[in-house]
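The protein record passed on for reference:
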Amino acid sequence: MAGGLVGLLDDVAALAKLAAASIDDVGAAASRASMKAAGVVIDDTAVTPTYVQGLAAKRELPIIKRIATGSIRNKLLFILPAALVLSEFAPTFVEIILILGGSFLCYEGAHKIVHAIKHDDHDHDVPAVVKGPDAEEATVAGAIRTDFILSAEIMVISLKEVIDEGFVARGIILVVVAVFITVVVYGLVALIVKMDDIGLSMAERDSASAQKVGRGLVTGMPKVLTWLSIVGTAAMLWVGGHILFVGADELGWHWPYSLVHDAERAVQDIANIGGVLSWLINTTISAVIGLVWGVILIGIAALMPARGTSEPTH
């Protein structure tokens, strides 16, 4: 009896170790997949604060909560099932969807640059409170639509990283990625949009140091939002361009990726800075490819017959 009990405990211990190892594997894979999607996450974090600019301060966090709820619904109820089915039965379509999503990022990034150069993005400067009582609903709906595109790209990039895992493991990893990224993105967004309120609160305290920090936060947040927008645009072009030439390589068109790879290898052995130079070359070429392709798509879109007055999502 004792021997049987010891054997049972050994089996339980072995199963526990196996489960722990599986959890570690899932965690590592989820972390790896999340890092691959980092560029789109940066863009998502940079874009979302613009949706609550001009709304009443007391409505900012409720709006962010509604957008975050829509985001997790997008990922878990719509994107994840479709991505898993495609990865199981038509994996080539995953690469095609990834390239289409990369093209969207290139278009949006180039569109931002073109509008910044032309200074014709005036509508975004109008506070939402001036646009009327329907502004909040329109804001939430527009943000969730934009999030759907970015979430799809995040999930497909993550899926591509773990596509060799088993079907169930793939699903668990993507659920972890979806929840983790949503919490991180919208937690940061909430912190960013409320930072000026935190600054105002600190500026009203008796402490001179708190007042100084508070005034710094209030005056600095517009600059932070501007830089976030710049970083988000750069991330869109970088990630979009990288997706394009890697996807082309996966589909059999090898020479663009080979050129980039050869350029990386030419500098990677330089002492101390080879790795940094290699990354910079890859990133710069990716961004240039993204910008050129984005401008081409803008030209194509301009030649198409107009259908309404809808603008791109950003």
Summary: Confidence is low (pLDDT under 50) at residues 1-24, 123-127, 308-314.
